[in-house]
Amino acid sequence: MEPLKRGDRIALLTSGGDAPGMNTALRAAHKVGAALGLEVLGVEEGYKGLIEGRIRPFTEFGGSRALDDASRRGGTLIGTARSKLFITPEGQAKAKEEIAKCRLRGLLVLGGNGSLTGARALDGALCHDGSPLRVVGLPASIDNDLAGTALAIGVDTAMNTIMEACDRISDTALAHQRVFIVEVMGRDCGYLAMTAGIAAGADAVLFREGGKTDEEIVEQVMRAVEAAFAQRKIVNGKEGMGRRHCLIIKSEGVRYDSHKLKEAVDARTAGRFPDVDTRVTVLGHVVRGGSPTAFDRLLASRLANVAVRALHAGHSQVMAGWAAPWAGGASIAPSPFDPHVTLRPLDEVLAETAKMHSGASDLVRWRVRALSEAEPVMVL
Ligand code: F6P
Q1: Which residue's alpha carbon is nearest to atom 14 within ligand 1?
Q2: Which member of 14, 37, 74, 82 lies 3.0 to 4.6 Å from 289 by CB, making a disulfide possible if both were Cys?
């Protein structure tokens, strides 16, 4: 495709669950687009707003000043939604009509798996003059549930939030000799639980990809409990106190309800450690908000820079990914715009993502193995 011309219109769209750093990506995309002479618009509330033709100049969102302020905050300035209508052929047809009506030449979609599946569905959309619309995706989801990028925008902030929460919980857990089960977001992907578990020094991490039965999960937790409370260190010939608290991080995707797990653990600890209580904390949406970390701001800016330059240069149906030069054994060349950012076809990214979610990807197999190898270290 030909490069875009000065004055051509592109729009930015955020969709699905918001992620810290989305605003920073919007700011960077707006700046880079302006530097390339493009008119950059914002779509209000994701695909829902696209279908309803709510595509507005950034002045209506508060302009550069609002983008600057927002880039330091979580959420998304232009709003997001999970549109049920966009999944239907009628919804997609209506969105394509609005794209042509608004004279858009390019669309930048920020979101996770569902959002980029939506971007894929826009393949074949036409501009007002019949030329093909170019669509580029940016991975933004705290869950890190997309292939083709080592990290999605928002993951680092979410990991830091979980780590901080777990550090706080560990203080009170130690004071009371307690087992804490901390549940974190991650519907289809246990990455947040796995990495935050390592960072926070958890005693066990429970994730869907492990494929464990409820009974095996209870066994895993009990191994950690045993190691935490039965352990007695010999210090200068005297018996020490041991770890005396136990942190279990559980991913949302594990179907075993956290409160039911607590009951099962209580039933097992009652006789063995009568003074030990178990508590459940569900961190939920707390993890999705907050000011993006420096890393997320940098990642968002670099991915957005490449994505807008790719749109401008004529790429379409690709995703800008971070430091993921490897895909199923084949190496991927870096993008011409940033040596750490790759551009991979959305088709490939989504196919590999589906494998990740079903547990059939090499990367997920490696994660599961690495975590199970780490378990003896965790409970030492
Ligand atoms: O953004 C993805 C995600 O955080 C999932 O981990 C979680 O299941 C879901 O969002 C919750 O979404 P909602 O905000 O619509 O309840």
Answers
A1: 17
A2: 74
